[in-house]
Write a structure and sequence with these properties.
The protein contains 15 helices and no strands. It has one domain.
């Protein structure tokens, strides 16, 4: 098997993307640690929020700027690791990492507010994300998007936005944005998992390779051109993904579907456990408060 090193440093490590994310992180730190007093109703970010946001940015570079991004254009299983990380792991970290006053400044914008309010309705949010995710994995659509730079950038950006929309009803902590109670959040997680299952099942149980961008050498080379400079590709004699993996095309495809489903189950399991225990603890607190109030109003007679 060949090494990814033959594609060069730029294709493997995306230096421009790294610089862009470092600028985003620097702006975030300046806003939440230094300049926050300049904004109305703002407050200094907590350490936990800063860790969440920083981790999200690091993971974003790991899946879109490291050799994993290049490998995701070569093998389907690496592509699905990218998908799971981009849409199931990173959005929750960014939602939890951005302070409330910044979120309010964004979503209360007169132009954004009505659109955001509509899109984050639980049923709409579920349909939007799972619909665009499933649509993307229709072979004809997938192969067209994977071979066009602008379509790929536009579609994956919209899918990332819809992923944030999907996670919003579950994870946002703005009092005015709470649309789901504890039990409804649990149902929301189960519904989300069910809606994502058909796309994974289609990939796992297919009896032949579905995507030309991983099975046809010409389409594969076109997809590879999205992350490898043309000058580098022109000097290479590539025949297909088998040069970089010992898996057959069908094994690679099935592994991708399995990896996506496993990561989804782990992430949803963690969120489900967090949601359940948060709901349970809040119910216990309410019971204790009601009991304390009852005892205060009905004191026991002293013996």
């Amino acid at each position: 098997m060949f090494s990814l090193d033959l594609f060069g440093f730029r294709a493997n490590w995306s230096p421009y993307y790294f610089v862009s994310l470092m600028i985003v992180l620097a702006v975030y730190y300046l806003l939440v640690f230094k300049y926050y007093p300049r904004f109305k109703e703002s407050e200094r970010v907590t350490s936990k929020q800063a860790i969440f946001f920083t981790t999200g940015i690091i993971l974003l570079y790991a899946v879109k700027g490291s050799p994993l991004d290049l490998l995701g254009h070569i093998t389907f299983y690496a592509h699905m690791i990218q998908m799971a990380s981009l849409y199931l792991v990173i959005p929750p970290l960014l939602i939890l990492g951005v302070p409330n006053w910044i979120w309010r400044g964004i979503i209360n914008n007169p132009i954004i507010k009505p659109v955001f309010s509509f899109m984050t309705k639980p049923l709409i949010a579920l349909v939007l994300f799972n619909g665009i995710f499933s649509f993307y994995h229709i072979p004809l659509i997938f192969d067209v998007i994977k071979t066009d730079m602008w379509l790929h950038a536009g579609y994956t950006s919209i899918m990332f936005l819809f992923a944030i929309v999907m996670w919003w009803p579950l994870l946002n902590v703005l009092p005015e944005q709470q649309s789901l109670s504890g039990l409804k959040k649990i149902g929301y997680i189960f519904a989300d998992g069910i809606l994502l299952t058909p796309a994974c099942a289609l990939i796992i149980f297919a009896d032949a390779p579905m995507y030309a961008t991983f099975s046809d050498p010409n389409a594969w080379a076109q997809a590879l051109a999205l992350c490898v400079p043309g000058s580098t590709l022109s000097m290479l004699n590539l025949s297909g993904p088998e040069m970089f993996s010992s898996l057959t095309l069908l094994e690679d495809q099935r592994l991708g579907g399995v990896v996506m489903k496993i990561i989804q189950e782990i992430v949803y399991g963690v969120v489900l456990a967090y949601t359940f225990f948060s709901w349970y603890n809040s119910e216990r607190e309410k019971e204790n408060e009601e009991l304390a109030l009852y005892r205060q109003q009905h004191p026991q007679p002293s013996k």
